[in-house]
């Protein structure tokens, strides 16, 4: 799982580097420092209980939206099937 994440980060950095105007002017030190800051922020956010609660609430909201979308999709299919069979 960690290898997949590292490969994903490397792929994104490679894609961004290849799409830049002047690839050889990219300051790798700046990229690595900012990447380290991202990892530190992610670790802090995942370890603090306040952020865990926020992520749990966001997860519940996402699950609720998914269930509502499924119910709405079922209703639309049911409604169109009802119209189709009543012709």
TrEMBL record:
<keyword id="KW-1133">Transmembrane helix</keyword>
<feature type="domain" description="Concentrative nucleoside transporter N-terminal">
    <location>
        <begin position="7"/>
        <end position="75"/>
    </location>
</feature>
<dbReference type="Pfam" id="PF01773">
    <property type="entry name" value="Nucleos_tra2_N"/>
</dbReference>
<dbReference type="InterPro" id="IPR002668">
    <property type="entry name" value="CNT_N_dom"/>
</dbReference>
<feature type="transmembrane region" description="Helical">
    <location>
        <begin position="28"/>
        <end position="50"/>
    </location>
</feature>
<keyword id="KW-0812">Transmembrane</keyword>
<protein>
    <submittedName>
        <fullName>Nucleoside permease</fullName>
    </submittedName>
</protein>
<keyword id="KW-0472">Membrane</keyword>
């Amino acid at each position: 799982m960690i290898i997949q994440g590292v490969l994903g980060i490397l792929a994104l950095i490679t894609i961004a580097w290849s799409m830049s105007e002047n690839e050889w002017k990219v300051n790798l030190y700046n990229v690595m420092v900012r990447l380290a800051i991202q990892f530190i922020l992610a670790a802090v956010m995942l370890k603090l209980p306040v952020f865990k609660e926020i992520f749990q609430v966001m997860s519940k909201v996402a699950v609720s939206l998914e269930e509502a979308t499924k119910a709405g999709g079922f209703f639309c299919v049911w409604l169109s099937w009802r119209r189709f069979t009543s012709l």
